[in-house]
Amino acid sequence: MEKYMDYLLDQLQKIMVIDSPSGYTKEVIHYLSSELDRLGFSVDHTVKGGLIADLGGKDDKNALVIGAHVDTLGAMVQEIKSNGRLKITNIGGLNANNIEAETVTVVTKFNGTYEGTCQLCNASLHVNGKYDDTSRSFDTVEIVLDEPVFSKEDVEKLGICTGDYVCVDPRTKITRSGYIKSRFLDDKLSVAIILAYAKYLADEKIALDRKVYAYFSVYEEVGHGAAASMPEGITESLNIDMGCVGDGLECNEHKVSICAKDSAGPYNYEMVTNLILAAKKANAQYSVDIYPYYGSDVEVTLRAGYDIRHGLIGPGVYASHGYERSHKDGVLSTLKLLQSYIK
Predict the structure, then answer these.
(1) Of 157, 141, 147, 188, which Cα lies nearest the Cα of 324?
(2) Which residues are catalytic?
(3) Residues 72, 94: contact at Cβ < 8 Å?
(4) CA 37, CA 297: separation in Å to the nearest integer?
(5) Phi-psi region at 244: left, alpha or beta (left = phi > 0; alpha = psi -120 to 50)
(6) Residue 196's closest CA among 3, 7, 2?
């Protein structure tokens, strides 16, 4: 599977530059649809904007869904302030501590886009004596537009209004030592892994024994991504999301993590066992972990009433919901595990 890494990383960089906070995912879904069509796979679009690709396979009574979410954290204009700055409200788990001094793009509905920066209110240390003591929250940070605006009326003339999306620059970088650094590796890195698996199937003309679908959801970060529109005949759903890296966990950026339990409870015992066996067979670097503060898209599918077995794997990602970091090793191990499990 090593030969698909260049394609995988190229696709990652392409989808990273397409802003896609939850609810604003049309452009990235269009890109994924075009790429999967180019690879020769048929796709369907869900009513709420997700994408389901048929990756082939014979047994459609024992179908498998491999899923990842392409929506990211983001923000929205909550208020245009009298001084021409923007107060924002977070979308998903975006944290004000993690976006101070980041470049952002404000997406208007009818008047294009504008750049700006997220800053602490009264951000100059030479002026603000309480800079160090101020708790960062969405009440104490604001968007400073890169436009000559000094009043609410100035901003409104640009066509910016309440409800416009605010997208944070991902700052994607792949280092010479193989580390992948970016915002929103959760979960665009997993999306790129599924694309690479699809390319492997197309290039090698693999005929799968069981029907396999790829499901790209668009509302995971706000809690209802894969709650609907599952294909008929599925018996298993394997979510590919970030593997947690932190204190008390075995995973690191060089491994694929197999999640045995998270905050919602245990994953299917048989699937976890078979994923471990598949990782060993593929010689993948792996760990088995329990995530204390984590919930996944596949659990949303179960809560929606689908009678399926469920599992979760993912490349190790450090600093989740911040400026995240993974490594090519962990990505390759995830791709190897995916190929081995389905095979």
Answers:
(1) 188
(2) 220
(3) no
(4) 25
(5) beta
(6) 7
Q: Round to whole Å and give the CA distance between 226 and 46.
A: 10
List CB contacts of 131: < 8 A, sequence separation 6 or more.
120, 122, 123, 125
With pLDDT > 90 as the criterion, what percentage of the chain qualifies? 99
pLDDT tens, residue by residue, 87-138: 999 999 999 999 999 999 999 999 999 999 999 999 999 999 999 999 999 9
What 3 state SS string does 179-245 have? EEEECCHHHHHHHHHHHHHHHHHHHHCCCCCEEEEEEEECCHHHCCCCCCCCCCCEEEEEEECCEEC
Q: Quote the pLDDT of residue 28.
A: 98
What is d(CA 244, CA 321) in angstroms, rounded to the nearest whole number? 11
Where b means 16+ CB within 10 Å and e means fewer, 118-152 reads bbbeebeeeeeeeeeeeeeebeebbbbbebebeee
Q: Is pTM beyond 0.85 here?
A: yes
